[in-house]
Amino acid sequence: xxxxxxxxxxxxxxxxxxxxxxxxxxxxxxxxxxxxxxxxxxxxxxxxxxxxxxxxxxxxxxxxxxxxxxxxxxxxxxxxxxxxxxxxxxxxxxxxxxxxxxxxxxxxxxxxxxxxxxxxxxxxxxxxxxxxxxxxxxxxxxxxxxxxxxxxxxxxxx
Length: 158
Prior knowledge:
By secondary structure, the chain is mainly alpha-helical. It has helices spanning 3-38, 44-66, 71-75, 81-96, 98-113, 122-156. It has one domain (3-156).
């Protein structure tokens, strides 16, 4: 595979991830915005919704700030391997840091959202927390695999 094909794949993947995250964020924003209206002000559920809404906006901002555009291909030729290798590694780094910028804000918001207010709610809370933890672990695993693939593509640049 030549450099230009690899670079086009990287750019397409970057834009595709940003669009997917934006659609998911829109769904989360609408759902938790509606839930926030019915939550008592000052309750853990209220603050959990706020954290989820702010975290979602932060996530979309990070994803789009790291998204590559086709305009880069016009400004940097495919033969500029040092630039493109750095672009590939930047995308891989973004995916490797998913636990910090993606999972942490949403997980904290979800835990507050589901926080028990009565003694009998502790066991369901622990079960929901375990599910949230497993989902975050899956997200981390998928993103690390994607980062390894992107780094493999970077090593193919000549």
